[in-house]
Amino acid sequence: MIWPNLCIDNFFQEPDKVVTFANSLEYFKPEPSNYPGKRTKHIHEIDHRFFEFTCLKILSLLYPNDYKNLRWNALQTFQKIPANLKYNGWIHTDSDHEFTSIIYLSKFLNCGTSIYHSKNTYGYITNEKIKNEYFKYNDPKLYSKTAKAKEENNNPFEETIKFNSRYNRLILFDGSSYHASNVFNHNNSKEERLTLITFFNTVERIDGLNLKKPLTTMRRIN
C-alpha cells in the first residue's frame, strides 16, 4: 500500500447544497451488478466544475503544496444504498484504482466503512457471481445461498479500522485495501445511505518531476 488512510470531518463548507444537488440527479442500477444500490452517471459528465473542485479539494489533503500542479484522472459518482439490504457488506478491494475517497452525505451514524486485513498471508475474494446476482435481484430465494457465499468471502479477514458515517465526513484509503460498507439498518425501509465516491486512477506532477507517495516516503526514513 502506498496511500494512507485518512478521516476528515466537515469536508464541504455547505454540505446541504451538495445533498440537494445529489438528490436532483438520476440514479441507475449497475450492469454488471457488482455493487449494491444505485449510482449516478459519472459526475464529470454532469457538472465538470463540481467534479474538478471536489477532486482538487481531496488531493489537497495529500499534497497541500502541490495540488494545483498535478495531472490526475478520476471517476466520481453519487451512490444510494437502501436500508435493510440483508446481505450487504461484502469485503472487496478497489485494486483497479490508486485510492478511493468516500464522503458520507446521510445523517445516519452506523453505516460507515471498515478496513480489513487478511488473517492469512494473502487475501482471496470469492463468490462474486453470487454477490452480483443477489445485488441485481434481491430475491428471497437467493438468501440461503448468498448468506453462505458472503460468509466464505468475509471469514478470512479481520476488521482493523472502522470509520463511522458522520455527516460530511470524508475517508480515503488505498485501492488495494480490503474494505466493506457496514450494513445499514433502519426502521424505515425507504431510507437510503447517500455517499459521494471518487476513484483516483492516476496522480502525477504536470512538470514531469517525480511525485513522491506519502507512505513510501515515510517508510524510507530510518
Question: Key terms for this structure?
Answer:
alpha+beta; Jelly Rolls; 9 strands
How would you describe the overall organization of this protein?
- The chain has one domain (6-219): q2cbj1_9rhob like domain (Jelly Rolls, Sandwich), CATH 2.60.120.620.
- 28% of the residues are buried.
- Helix content is 25%, strand content 27%.
- It has a 6-stranded antiparallel β-sheet, with helices on one face. Strands 6-5-8 form a 3-stranded antiparallel β-sheet, with no helix packed on it.
- It has helices at residues 15-23, 43-46, 48-62, 128-137, 143-154, 214-219, and strands at residues 6-8, 38-39, 70-82, 99-104, 113-118, 157-163, 170-174, 178-181, 192-205.
- By secondary structure, the protein is α+β, with helices and mostly antiparallel strands.
